[in-house]
Amino acid sequence: SPRPVGGEGACLPACGGSAASATMGRTAVVRHARVKKASKAAEEALAALELAESDAARDSNDGELTAIELAAVVKDAERAAAVAVEKFTPTATGFLSPAEVAAIEGSGLRKMADLKMWTTGGFSSAERRRVVFSRSTEFDDDSDGASDTGDGGDGGDGGALERELVGAVECEGNFLFDPAEVSDYAEAVLSVGGVEPMHVGDIIPNGDRGAQIVLDPDVIKWVVAKLQSVGDVEVRTFPLASLADLRVRAGSTKELTSVESSMRLDAVASAGMKLSRSKLAKMVKEGSVEVNFVKETNSHRKLVEGDVVAVRGKGRVTIEEIHVTAKQRFRVRMTRAT
């Protein structure tokens, strides 16, 4: 900011001085006041600009986690791991997104002495999962705990500890004329007082009859009592007796190869998903596409080996290998999971 004339210590001349010195003094004071006013206005404008830029950045992220937020998730996990090791008591995070789980798994916690770590989400292909910590000497036979994947297979039951960490409810209603998306069920559950995202796992739609919702067992009774509608449709909610009752559709994978002129998201993912390039670009713009479990709104993003592209309602494509041809085109080997 501009430096005030005369410095912060500038003062009026002593009484009885010359008229010229008095005039100079008044001029300096007026100039000082103007500069201070301009400086304050500049500071306010700068603060407003920074706030606008922050809001714009948050809007452009459209809900994706920042590095600071991921660091906070890892810090919480480190504290939970320390408690598990020091107090010989298993601990767990809440349900986390794939990006949050990946941040924890990449933090080096697996190298922590005497620590065993695994994840569970109620079934093997669950996306939202809880990270569980215990001393490495516990649950070696997996009879009372869970395996490193933490799940007993699709619709399976991973042991007593998992049953303490993961439960589910059936949400039934007639959605024939008013279909509900996964986001509608999530919004309805989170509108129940006391239920937070950390309490909610995957949501498994059941066509026009409702959905099954994986939850932290601690909130199941509350959700059953309070969840009475999803959108405009009245629902009946009741707990599932076992995770084995989850209706998880068996997935399939297929390997395919495509030759593209660029590694742009819209070009490669459209080939992998068997969609037109314009349709894929539109889905990217609508927020229906994630790259490495983070929403992506730039259809021109360049993909690299190892990237995972998820398209809502279509499945996932993993970029396995990229080979540049003699004509400088890209031969891409992908695995599609549906």
- Rg from C-alpha positions? 29 Å
Please tally the β strands and state the result: 15
**Biggest sheet architecture:** 6 strands, antiparallel
Q: What is the helix tally? A: 8
Structural class: alpha+beta
**Shape annotation:** globular
Query: Low-confidence runs (pLDDT<50, min 5 residues)?
Result: 1-26, 53-63, 141-150, 152-157
The string of secondary-structure elements, in order, is: HHEHEEHEHEEHEEEEHHEEEEE
Structure characterization notes:
Helix content is 34%, strand content 22%. The protein has 338 residues and is α+β, with helices and mostly antiparallel strands. The strands form four sheets. The chain has a six-stranded antiparallel sheet. Strands 5-6-4-9 form a four-stranded antiparallel sheet. Helix 2 crosses helix 3 (98-105) and helix 7 packs across helix 8 (277-285). The longest helix has 43 residues, at 19-61.
List descriptors:
34% helix, single chain, alpha+beta, 338 residues, 22% strand
Q: In a few lines, what is going on in this structure?
A:
The chain has 8 helices and 15 strands.
Topology, element by element:
Layout: H1 19-61, H2 67-87, E1 91-92, H3 98-105, E2 115-120, E3 130-135, H4 160-165, E4 167-172, H5 182-190, E5 200-205, E6 210-215, H6 217-226, E7 229-230, E8 233-234, E9 236-239, E10 253-260, H7 265-273, H8 277-285, E11 289-291, E12 294-295, E13 308-311, E14 315-324, E15 330-337
Antiparallel strand pairs: 1-3, 2-3, 4-6, 4-9, 5-6, 7-8, 10-15, 11-12, 11-13, 13-14, 14-15
